Amino acid sequence: MAADSDSDSLDAALLARAARGEAAAARLLTARRAPRLLALATRMLNDPAEAEDVTQEAFLRLWRAAEDLAQGPAPIGAWLHRVAANLCLDRLRRRRGVALDDVAAPADPGPGALERLAAADRAAALRAALAALPDRQRAAVCLRHFDDRSNPEIAQALGVSVEAVESLLARGRRALAAALAGHREDAA
Amino acid sequence: MDLARFRALAGAWGGDIARWPEASRAAARLTARAPEAAAALAGAAALDAALADLDAAPGPAPSAALLAACARDAVAAADARRSAARRARRPMAALLAAAAVAGLALGLSGALDAALAPQEAARDAEASLAAEAMLAAPDALAALFGEAT
């Protein structure tokens, strides 16, 4: 908690200096916070170039909102994360030809399958499985697991009902679990 | 809650019942006591954990180009903010200048009034005396207009 608080304070100090036009402070704050945004945006959009664009746009909004943020209690990292997630959602909405039911539901691999995967393999398999998900399923999974949004918040962000979110999450998570189980079987 | 519904909820919302839709939580906690339900919950929690590990992993380092672009944007935003502040101050400065000019004009006007006041008062007094004199001497008035009284 204290480390978080220190980190937030450092962010705030860097932002104050960046808001005065100090390029070095802006560069340092970007270096501190961009990796997490890039990871989120890459997972949500499945496109590294778009993820860079989203990250730059999120920081641009940060610079423009610097004075307002300086007076508010919101930690800058969390603020940036939420802005980046929303920018990703905007891009996903603009994409054409995305259907809710475009991937058949895979079989449930059953409990215990994931634990047998080595951590590195598991991460690689998860990244690949996430990338293979349809946009809306991937968005629902990312908002739930990487942006810590509540069920109604996810529904609102995606413009669907909570029941539809449940369906998206169920199919997305089932696909992830199945991909991980398949990876395990390949490795065996 | 039957086991099929419990499994569906666990599959969608994960292994933490506290994060399931509120309306289903109480019944789900009761169902979770069954071994099959507990197993479904553990499977969902394992996927949650794998996703949490992925989220905790360090993200890619930003490229030099991205760092430079963000720094440029920050400087540009600061410049824009300063320009906007100058623009916002400009009407205020003009207003203050106008007020100063108006104040000066009023002051000058007042000073002029004050300077002229004695002369005007004197003129008024002379006119008043002349009028009184004319009224007091109607013959003089008739003489002035060449009329016989």
Walk me through the structure.
The complex is a heterodimer of chains A (188) and B (149). Mean pLDDT of chain A is 83; it is low at 98-107. Chain A has helices spanning 2-19, 23-45, 48-64, 66-71, 76-94, 119-132, 135-145, 151-158, 162-187. Helix content of chain A is 76%, strand content 0%. In chain A, helix 2 packs across helix 7 (135-145), helix 3 packs across helix 5 (76-94) and helix 7 (135-145) packs across helix 9 (162-187). Chain A folds into two domains: 2-94, Rna Polymerase Sigma Factor, Chain: A; 114-187, Arc Repressor Mutant, subunit A (Orthogonal Bundle). By secondary structure, chain A is mainly α. Chain B is mostly helical and 149 residues long. Chain B has a domain at 3-56. The chains are: A mainly alpha (188), B mainly alpha (149). The interface between A and B is large, with 60 and 45 residues.
Task: From the structure above, extract its key features.
heterodimer, A: 188 residues, mainly alpha, Rna Polymerase Sigma Factor, Chain: A, Arc Repressor Mutant, subunit A, 2 domains, 9 helices, globular, B: 149 residues, 5 helices, elongated, disordered C terminus
List the helices and strands and how they pair.
The complex is a heterodimer of chains A (188) and B (149).
Chain A: H1 2-19, H2 23-45, H3 48-64, H4 66-71, H5 76-94, H6 119-132, H7 135-145, H8 151-158, H9 162-187
Helix pairs in contact in A: 1-2, 2-3, 2-5, 2-7, 3-5, 6-9, 7-9, 8-9
Chain B: H1 3-13, H2 22-31, H3 35-56, H4 64-136, H5 138-145
